[in-house]
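W.,

You were right to be curious about this one. When I first looked at the sequence I had no strong expectations either way, so I just let the prediction run and decided to look at it fresh. Below is the sequence, 1473 residues in total, followed by the output.
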Amino acid sequence: MFSICRQTHPATGIEHAVSCCFFNNDETCLVTAGANIIKVFRLLPEGPTKEVNAAGQPIPPKMKLECLATYTLWGNVMSMASVRCPSAGRDLLLVSFKEAKLSVLQYDPQVNNLITLSMHYFEEDDMKGGWTTHPHIPWIRVDPECRCAVMLLYGRKLAVLPFRKDITSEDGDPLEAKPLADSKKNQPVQNVTRAPTLASYVIVLKDLDEKIDNILDIQFLHGYYEPTLLLLYEPIRTFAGRTAVRNDTCAMAGVSLNMSARVHPVIWAMGGLPFDCLQAVPVQKPLGGCLIMAVNSLIYLNQSVPPYGVSLNSIATHTTNFPLRIQEGVCITLDGACVAPIAEGRLALSLKGGQLYVLTLLSDSVRSVRSFHLDRAAASVLTTCMCVIEEDFLFLGSRLGNSLLLRVTERENRMLFSVDKPLEATVDLTVSDTDKPPEPPTLNKEQPKETSDSAAKKRRLDTISDCIATNVIEISDKDELEVYGSDIRTSTQLTSYVFEVCDSLLNVCPIGDVSMGEPQLLSEERPAGEGGEGGEGGEGAEPALELVACSGRGKNGALTVLQRAVRPQLVTAFNLPGCLDMWTVIGEPTEVTRDAHKDMEGSHAYLILTQEDSSMVLQTGQEINEVDNSGFMTGAPTVFAGNLGANKYMLQVTTTAIRLIKNGVQIQSIQLEWTASFAATADPYVCVVSTCGRALALALREFRAKDGMTARLAPTRQPVPHRPALIKAIPYRDLSGLFTSADIETVQVKGEFTGKKGKNVKAEGFKPDTIYELNDEDELLYGGDQTPASMASIMLAEQSKNPGVPRRISRWWKKYLVEVKPTYWLFVVRNNGNLEIYSLPEMRLSFLVRDVCQGNRILADSLESVPIPTNPFEDEDLSSNTQNADVEKLKELLVVGLGNKGSRVLMLLRCEDELMIYQAYRFPRGNLKLRFSRVAAAFPFGYRAAAAVPHDSYEAALLRDNVRQLRYFGNVGGYNGVFVCGPTPYFVLLSARGELRLHPLARDQAPVASFASFNNTNCPQGFLFFNAKSELRICALATHLSYDAPWPVRKVPIRMSPHFVTYHMESKTYCLVASAAHHTTTYYKFNGEDKEKSTENKGDRFPYPMTERFSVLLFSPVSWEIIPNTRIELDEWEHVTCLQNVALSYEGTRSGLRGYIAIGTNYNYSEDITSRGRIIIYDIIDVVPEPGQPLTKNRFKELYAKEQKGPVTALTQVLGYLISAVGQKIYIWQLKDNDLVGVAFIDTQIYVHRMLAVKNLVLVADVYKSISLLRYQAQHRTLSLVSRDLRTAQIYTMEFMVDNSTLGFLVSESDGNFALFMYQPQARESYGGQRLIRKCDYHLGQQVHAMFRINARRVPNTNHRRHVTMFTTLDGGVGYVLPVSEKMYRRLLMLQNVMNNYCCHVAGLNPRAHRTYKSGRRLAGLGPARGVLDGDLVALFTSMPGGEKQDIAKKIGTKVEEIMADLYEIDRLTAHF
């Protein structure tokens, strides 16, 4: 059985976050990683702000995250760090992978991608020391002064990676180097690029000190002359039950790394730390040293001062002999906590329950810590990683909930600090998980702040007016003047911290369970048979489906509703045959101040439909009527209609004329001397293209007339050059500021004082044209008296790190608030394959790309090296009239600015067989400072163009051929983007979040002939389209879904941990099992013959354990809320282990099968008390709903609930009987008169946790012993073992694979593998059928916890019946495994092998190695079986450049069209939901 595996929804969790200068040194970005995806975000301000903090410094406005780049790797990121590298112009990214690989990456603007600077591989056998399982994570740590990085190998060795000395020097990027201004203009700049890393080497930790083993954490310390690494380790292990005889087992060692001599002395060691130490946190200067976080205590260590430790709860007092003081007023544990430094001596802590604390280290004058202060600031998301960006923002990355961006502001209150302050109420930052989190009430938190001398105040005063206080009167804050008085007093000040939510990133993982259901909010009944596909009547109708998944945990628990396709809500539909094209035109504009980038505000007054030889004009008000005297021309087919002059004027271009209309009156008409085939506007410009390869550019000129404003269209002074013949032309209005010929600011040392220059600073302080050197700034900021100039170079590295230099003085966010003036450009594609960009209105050639239809990854400017010719037609090369073959295929060109304020410029090229999307990005060289880079969009593989209708006349065929299929829309449901018409209609969205989204339109509407956005009183922010039956449909997007996600999604917070969900067909509701945790002081203990309950009272400072209380709920898919009064609480201590929707035959009053909800439970008391469980069977019955609550028409009715002899761990049905795993036996039951009667049983392995049945076969999964196949024979009433897998494997879940009459068993294992087993008794290696044979295997890299099957979509003219096996992962991914025919498998396997060498191996990771089956045990004589195609790799073929596609097809001896047809078929087979 051959199959292909593809992930269609990417992982969404975030596990690592670093902040670094990813693209260039001017801009700090946030880089996040989760599973195999790295994303780069930048912070964008929502709007200007006037807020200041306590020090009178400006605080940045609230920010949104904009995603600038996404990289998918062939391996999961295990650890990530960044290295400052000013000499290269941008930072390096260090990423490590399982088990011991390290890659040094950097963004490269030449290819607009991550390039690998060096790869380090430490997986030799002698490194592993004979071990086969490696639980240790390869942590990367970077020295704070960027002299080296280290990586932990297998927990026993360290790899050291030294960096070059000049990496931190300020030589600009070689790309940014400007040639001298004289005759050397055209010579290429010579640049020598060297690897930033020197040779790496390995330290064996046992050689430093033979006790070092079981590393808990490694960290670099601040403030040492050489890089100094702190190792936290546990030489001899212990555990909680053994602390009475062995405690305080942890130790730490400080190792100084001398990399030139490769000697590593231990300069500082300490033993006897508490046994539950978790991690070390280096403390920044001036304090230095480090903080050791243990589960129950917190200890500050520094080399020269005695340690200071506190106990955080009462457990610490009797598990350690380390001297600890009691921290008053807190009772917390630090297991699973994250930490990040937010200021000097202050850290933000996020506990495992999501509480945010601020920890302050209070020090005395000798710089030793004398007390801690912990303050509960807010309640937030359950955090996985934390990162501080630009000092004022805290990013909380999460795998269990939506990741948050918080703004941290400090406010100072001058009052003395008292210890016995009660804990105040806290803000919960995660209350609403909806799209826009509300502003939490700001809560002032007192925070002690010790100013031991007035230097801090002096420094703050200096920064008020940009380091030059010319006279005292200009200082705004009167309190600051006391510095000049004699009253310099040291007082404990209180700083209050306020955390405010700025933005959140949607996350649907971990998906624990998933169920298919029918969406309830469909606007119409679906037809019985689907157009041209369903052959067998009723069976052809494929129901609309949606996925409901359990995601999150605890207070971040939610139900996630996923739909793959956009299902618009129908407002109304008419049948209008014979229409080829349509436009909507905005009528008289309402006088509203419009943002420049909101193109389509205002409601549409007219709808214009093109027919073969005429046009039809409809007025759209309350109803839609045809009008005659609208000023529009109806006698010829319209090729374009739109608005000009800020929507004041309407424009119509027919095949023969151009008309300008205002208020339904024609004010200008221009006859054309040739037939127009295409036109487009970029207000105020219009460009009309003829069928003969010429273009006319017109501009709108407004002037005053006696009856008010009027306007005329006039051709631009310079005509569009018409040789060589042009094929497509489109004008574009740019608001991104990317299209500029001005030099981009060179990457300079941050010496410019961009703050309030020229406001309150005397300008003579600044000399023009000097760049202030770092030394001056350092002396100004650090105070010149104790800073000799020689030390300024030492402070270079600290400048970015030291919190004493506030980054906010430079007001880095100001550049995002500058209004960009629109510029106008004309994009032209000629028949020799060149793309030319002309500036309007000068018509100056500014950018030229050869062979634009080749589909190259980067479109670079051919004028970069050539000086611009004064007359382009003298240059033979540019105007060579050679016909280009690829250009013949180009059907359409569209350039749009999407994203935040139109800053993301997309160029879409639609060819006959594919759609190419390019995005403009900034590039420092050339005439226009930009390039275009191809977006690897996972389009439907065979992007199909519509087939020609045979009986058309020549003119109609020409018209039909020129119908625009790429339709820009400015506001549909609040989104702007492009709609792609045709047989595979798609929405292409790019919102302010910055990620390109492709959503297919529901398949029963295809093919779509044309599309227009439609804003009307009856249909606000809607759209119109013609479907296959030439029906005009007026629709709106469903508002309950968010479309700015990989799939349209709705996340319904339930604030409990969801465990299981299943759809109940008869009542159309979802049954959900969820649990809420609460503290408990009771437990059961065994007293010899029975259990007895006992209650403990351990005092206030004891952290009591949490216990889960389970409940069963009914959920309505109509309103997405729990149906009132249906919640059933289960007993205390009772845990649900399985939930199944089973079809049982009911003997008694009724007969036949009926769906019931069956639940298996277990009472978890303690290890001394025998486990027992219950089987509970519910029927969901219809009742009379309560008045005013129509959803309460369904209730649970309990049919059976009895205790069993052991824990009930799995349930399913076989032939109408219930089959259950109870303890180590499997029983078959029959439901008779509300009681279960035993039928048969069999003994099993250790712990059965999954069971599946098909016909009379039962597949059983064991937690440890892999899978077994059982058969139930009804006539003998026996249950027998057929075959099983003889190896040990930890199974997570399993599902059947069905291919015609072949049955396979697909299992997912704990290592992130898939394995496919088959029962083949005739094969020799199956020992006569006793053993299941592993036929295929595949490494997914994510753990799969839920699977289900669905019938594959029908493909015309095949009778191949098969099922798609869908899966969901714990990282939030969704994908499928699909059986394929051997012919297709062989062809795509050859493609996969060739693609392995062609695709970009980001970070040096190999796709083939990544997909190989991975297992801790080496299996004797069994290598990986492979046999599953890597759909993610094969899908990359579609976005390859044309030339490479031809090469690859030639190498495997087939045609590009055949490969595309195969990929298209796979895409259609799996186009569900």
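Here's what jumped out at me. The two ends are 26 Å apart (CA to CA). And, maybe more interesting for your project: The mean pLDDT is 80.

Coffee later to discuss?

I.
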